[in-house]
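User: Okay, second chain of the day. Same drill as before: sequence in, structure tokens out.
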Amino acid sequence: MDFKKLASQVTKIIDETPIADIHTHIYSESFGDLLLWGIDELLTYHYLVAELFRYKPELDYEDYWNMPKQKQAELVWDELFIKNSPISESARGVVTILNALGLDVSDKNLNKIRRYFAKIPISQYVDKVLELSNVKYVIMTNDPFDKKEQAVWDKGGNTDSRFKTALRIDGLFDPRCFANQNKAAGTDFLKRWIEKIKPVYLGTSLPPDFNIEDGGTKAKMILECVLPAAREYKLPFAMMIGVKRGLNPALRLAGDGVGRANVDTIAKLARDWPDVKFLVTMLSRENQHELCVTGRKFKNIVVFGCWWFLNNPSIMREITAERIETLGLTMIPQHSDARVLDQLIYKWVHFRKVLAEVLGEKYFDLVSAGWPVSEADIKRDVSRILGGQLLSQ
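Assistant: Same drill. Structure tokens below.
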């Protein structure tokens, strides 16, 4: 088999394989206005907001935040798409979405694009996005401390099986929620919400300096409440490590940064809690090799995703190849981290291309060494890493 034929076959199989998107910030229609979608939400996504201030440094932060969302979107469109080419990954992603929806953007008319979104019912649009992205289900990030979410769950909760739940436990670390981080109160709260929303996993984001041995609030609540609950309910614990909150507070959500973390903490947790599965992703590029090696040593660690600032094709290609070379097919290569429904389209269109390039090369290496690779082999492998199997194993 020549390389072009094999690469074409790999690309086709990856494109046709339904995806389990294991970490997003999108919601089902049951959650009302918590579900973000449409062109104005895409243009005011925090990646593009941060980019706007680079193109227009004379713009005052508060002046921007005081604008109506529609005006904010128009400003982003004008600066990033009209006055400059939308060549960054996040800007190109908007173009990918509009193209996939069949919209002619050659005239660069924002109002015409808005008319398309104004006419389509949200239920129909959810179906369309999931179909175009070939995503069979997404896992939401459900915050039990959010008043809007609490109201939804009190009235019956999620009704769309394509949107599964993950229980975000960051609020447990806030002393305003649990005085002195009371173990009993935290445990009762966790169990009540686990039984209420039936999450696929428990999850939290953590700063680069997180250390499970420092005796601090986070370490205490994880060791005394979160991990015992994860073990009892047989739920994975997802740790997303490396975000520096509020690096530039004036940018609000767009102002977070990245820092290199200590992988030894992950090893200690995996060693001390062998009956808990740890889903781990790290934000710093510099952590990736050590994370792979650590994951290789513990069967209860599943490395997943190219998170946030790593979601660039050049970096995804490097990390995906490194993980396959080190961990084989025992990792989850990507999650979308989408905050706006529409982003499922571009995140997976762009990553599928990266994955096809990397896997195509790896399969060709096998074939060149005399090892036969069948279509069934490729389908099995791709389904394993994209279809959510590693969550349940």
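The mean pLDDT is 96.

User: Thanks, on to the next one.
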